[in-house]
Q: What sequence folds into this?
């Protein structure tokens, strides 16, 4: 089936088999491998992307469902510098070890900070509760998100 | 794993969807939010021949109030329920319950219709439909029928929908004055499937329940509207009365044993939920029976 | 902080690779794409202990994208089985562990055939079409009963089901229990903690 969509601001036209999910389409057709596949059934969060501005599980969306929609991946958010401060905080606080969960964490964290400028640690944990990390134990991730929220509030003053 | 191959059909209207379902019957599965269908397909637990994507059908969206009736379109996403000022006013139980469903990314796609048609016994929204006395609006090429929530859920992943029918909306009565609600679920971690849960709606006049609907979930093969509620109606609620109601509850529930909990544990948690619910709705914390 | 020149202890050590990983520009194994790369999916035994009576793969081999379907016997010619003993655990016994089971599956999930295809989805489609005939055998799944006389020995050539035993006897343990005011006993079951 032909599909036409926008990915990270660029128009993409492609022919896909209906069964190909959005995560595999991004990774294999577009070679945007920053979106990771962990569980393929929606629980781990490694495949989190933005669809029309809202975070979703790319493994639970068929590529054909993204026709005429706008998709943003970690590559797009990085290139536009939208998450530059979050990435710096993650780096400074060692909020990643292997880095496999990190693109999903950044997408979820940015989604939270766009909605809540002053989240509590409990709110941060709740918003990121669908993103699994096997390496860090989550503490440093929560620290990094909290620190970024604070820094953004200070800059806004 | 990767889903097995299928024929994909994008329905452009309800009529179009119904024609596709009539043609393919039980060879087809409806794709709504996909948050339950896609995991099952990706795990190759199911391999439907045909997928009917209803995601683009505008008439299935919308939350409206007409007279005394609140109508919620089947494609209403969980996040829409959370954000809607209409829901906040007329069905706040739904907004509270849906915050317990999975995680933000799931709630951005999962739909009310999909959740109800999927009929997972641990579904929060299914129990809410029971608690709110909802009517499910179902269409097929043969016409429309209205199914009371109490008659809709038939078992694990089983509803009274036939293969050629589509759930299009849910209708609820606008709540009466004095209407209050309670929601709580026990889960190991936030967003996990509930081990046991309760969605309740009540009318409290003075300090007496003149109406009480207790819908337990994750305690059997379908949500249960507890008859135990009747014991608490139109009477001064005492610890002894709650004990009696608890006993009725333990009798009418037949919870499953599984990896999360034993049947006995679920029965126990149901009783705890009953106590907490009554205590909360009557503003009498002592009635939680020391189990708060 | 230790007073040692050039010590890393107590210092924050920068990790120059982090930025690349956070931008989604890492190269994880599943990100690698090599020319004409094939994908493999395994058909696995649903039984904890079963004889592999036969594997019917002709229909699967003809399916789109399938390059080969390999069973244990074919692989045995090029893969030496692993014998999992360790020189610092004297007495540890291990049966040869084949890459793919030959004649017999000894644990639920043991691979009995490999399906190689041009992409994973097609390999999985073909794997579903591989028909394996099993003859179920008695399984030993309770460690506490593994050494009972009536429990079948899984690897006859090893003599019994005991993989390893270490006896540590220090302090007068029996005496300590005999002298104690109270002796409490409990069983704890918890998941294995690998390194």
A:
């Amino acid at each position: 089936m032909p599909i036409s969509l926008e990915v990270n601001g660029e128009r993409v036209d492609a022919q896909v088999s209906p069964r190909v999910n959005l995560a595999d389409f991004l990774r294999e057709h577009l070679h945007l491998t920053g979106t990771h596949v962990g569980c393929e059934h929606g629980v781990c969060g490694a495949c989190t992307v933005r669809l029309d501005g809202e975070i979703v599980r790319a493994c639970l969306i068929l590529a054909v469902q993204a026709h005429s929609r706008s998709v943003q991946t970690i590559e797009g958010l990085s290139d536009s510098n939208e998450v530059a401060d979050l990435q710096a905080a993650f780096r400074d606080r060692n909020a990643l070890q292997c880095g496999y969960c990190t693109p999903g964490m950044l997408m979820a964290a940015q989604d939270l900070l766009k909605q809540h400028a002053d989240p509590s640690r409990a709110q941060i944990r709740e918003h990121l509760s669908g993103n699994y990390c096997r390496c860090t134990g989550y503490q440093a991730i929560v620290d990094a998100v909290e620190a970024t929220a604070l820094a953004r509030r200070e800059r806004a003053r | 794993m990767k889903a097995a191959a299928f024929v994909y059909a994008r329905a452009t209207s309800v009529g179009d969807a119904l024609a596709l379902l009539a043609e393919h019957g039980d060879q087809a599965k409806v794709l709504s939010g996909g948050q339950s269908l896609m995991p099952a397909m990706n795990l190759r637990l199911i391999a439907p021949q045909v997928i009917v994507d209803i995601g683009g059908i505008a008439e299935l969206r919308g939350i409206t109030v007409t007279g005394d009736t609140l109508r919620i379109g089947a494609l209403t996403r969980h996040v829409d329920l959370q954000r809607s000022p209409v829901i906040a006013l007329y069905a706040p139980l739904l907004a509270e319950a849906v915050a317990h469903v999975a995680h933000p990314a799931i709630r951005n796609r999962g739909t009310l219709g999909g959740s109800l048609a999927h009929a997972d016994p641990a579904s929060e929204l299914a129990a809410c439909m029971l608690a709110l006395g909802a009517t499910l609006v179902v269409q097929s090429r043969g016409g429309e029928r209205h199914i009371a929530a109490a008659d809709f859920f038939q078992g694990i992943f089983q509803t009274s929908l036939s293969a050629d029918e589509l759930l299009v909306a849910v209708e609820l009565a606008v709540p009466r004055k004095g209407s209050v609600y309670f929601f709580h679920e026990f889960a190991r971690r936030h967003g996990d499937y509930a081990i046991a849960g309760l969605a309740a709606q009540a009318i409290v006049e003075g300090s007496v329940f003149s109406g009480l609907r207790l819908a337990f979930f994750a305690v059997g093969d379908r949500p249960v509207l507890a008859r135990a509620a009747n014991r608490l109606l139109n009477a001064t609620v005492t610890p002894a009365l709650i004990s009696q109601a608890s006993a009725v509850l333990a009798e009418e529930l037949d919870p499953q044993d599984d990896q999360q909990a034993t049947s006995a544990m679920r029965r126990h948690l149901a009783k705890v939920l009953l106590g907490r619910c009554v205590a909360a709705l009557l503003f009498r914390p002592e009635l939680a029976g020391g189990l708060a | 902080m230790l007073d040692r020149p050039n010590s890393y202890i107590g210092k924050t050590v920068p990790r120059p690779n982090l930025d690349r990983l956070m931008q989604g520009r890492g190269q994880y194994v599943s990100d690698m794409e090599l020319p004409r790369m094939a994908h493999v999916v395994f058909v696995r035994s649903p039984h904890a202990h079963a004889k592999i009576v036969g594997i019917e793969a002709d229909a699967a081999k003809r399916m789109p994208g399938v390059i080969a379907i390999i069973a244990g016997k074919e692989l045995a010619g090029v893969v030496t089985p692993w014998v999992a003993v360790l020189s610092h655990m004297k007495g540890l016994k291990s049966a040869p562990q084949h890459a793919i089971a030959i004649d017999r599956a000894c644990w639920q999930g043991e691979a009995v055939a490999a399906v190689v295809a041009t992409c994973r989805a097609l390999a999985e489609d073909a794997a579903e079409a591989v028909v394996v005939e099993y003859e179920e055998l008695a399984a030993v799944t309770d460690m506490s009963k593994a050494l009972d006389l009536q429990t079948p020995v899984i690897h006859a050539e090893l003599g019994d089901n005991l993989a390893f035993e270490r006896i540590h006897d220090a302090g007068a343990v029996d005496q300590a229990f005999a002298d104690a005011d109270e002796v409490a006993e409990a069983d704890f079951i918890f998941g294995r903690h690998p390194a």
Summary: Residues 84 and 194 of chain C are 16 Å apart (CA to CA). The longest helix of chain C spans residues 120-129. The domain at 35-139 of chain C is CATH 3.90.1170.50 (Aldehyde Oxidoreductase; domain 3).
